[in-house]
Amino acid sequence: MVSSLPHPTTSAGRDGLAALLARPENAVVALDFDGTLAEIVPDPEQARAHPGAVPALSALAPRIASVAVVTGRPAGVAVRYGGFAGVPGLEHLVVLGHYGAERWDAVTGTVQAAAVHPGVATVRAELPGFLDGVGAWPGTWIEEKGRAVAVHTRRAGDPQAAFEALRAPLADLAARHGLVLEPGRMVLELRPPGMDKGVALAEYVREVGAGSVLYAGDDLGDLPAFAAVEKLRSDGTPGLLVCSGSSEVQELSDRADLSVPGPPGVVDFLAALAAAVREGPAGSEGSQEA
């Protein structure tokens, strides 16, 4: 049984949802991966899309202009962990990986990528010794991300203390090599400047020529995408911002038009949205009031 479509709490969000439902063929639905389509897990290599994510997306995608997954992960990794390849209904899915530096298109099954910033290789080599020099935090570990490198503190004895202690030194290390530090949920990522989800989303929305846009995310790295949707709204393109609920990122939920309880809530929302689009504006209007 499909849940009824939840009602945004802001007027801008209600306008965004109404525009999407009125002309779904012109809408872009964009989603983060980790924490939005997949649960946050201690080992990022074990993350997988919620079992209901692909069915919900495959029901929705043929009825709208485009579905895009916007993630900090390499595009190919997100495709594998999401189970997105070769799925009926997702023939035109796009995955914008590494904050848009990589792009996978389902229609071709290939990844297009820009050159890797030289500072990433230098930081990757220096990071183990650098972390030893700034203090021992047992349980802290390094994730290799190809075009970026990340330090996770979730497994440390005091994850928040480790996060705060490492934030400034890692920001200095990133700056010395022409990179920037992106904080997340118990993770500090060093990556090239100019790579963020807002840039990737805005460029993709322009490419598609979308008449409305929905973005769902859960973490600090999603704030630029939220800002991009807010800018689109100020320029006349309706948009809806969805927070995959987390008590860890209050700033995101404060700016959202609608909050749902994590990946299961996102999946329920996508399924309800697909049903509302299938019914048309008259049927969906009633579901919003349920």
List the helices and strands and how they pair.
Elements: H1 11-22, E1 27-31, H2 53-60, E2 66-70, H3 75-82, E3 94-97, E4 102-105, E5 110-113, H4 118-133, E6 141-144, E7 149-152, H5 159-176, E8 180-183, E9 187-191, H6 197-208, E10 212-217, H7 223-234, E11 239-244, H8 250-255, E12 258-260, H9 262-279, H10 281-289
Parallel strand pairs: 1-2, 1-10, 2-3, 10-11, 11-12
Antiparallel strand pairs: 3-4, 4-5, 6-7, 7-9, 8-9
How would you portray this structure in words?
With about 290 residues, the protein is an alpha/beta fold. It is about 40% helix and about 20% strand. It is built from 10 helices and 12 strands. It has helices at about 10-20, 55-60, 75-80, 120-135, 160-175, 195-210, 225-235, 250-255, 260-280, 280-290; strands at about 25-30, 65-70, 95, 100-105, 110-115, 140-145, 150, 180-185, 185-190, 210-215, 240-245, 260. The strands form 2 sheets. The protein has an 8-stranded mixed β-sheet, with helices on both faces. A 4-stranded antiparallel β-sheet has the order 6-7-9-8, with helices on one face. α6 crosses α7 and α9 (about 260-280) crosses α10 (about 280-290). The longest helix has 18 residues, at about 160-175. The radius of gyration is 19 Å and the shape is globular. The two termini are about 15 Å apart. About 50% of the residues are buried. Mean pLDDT is about 90; it is low at about 280-290.
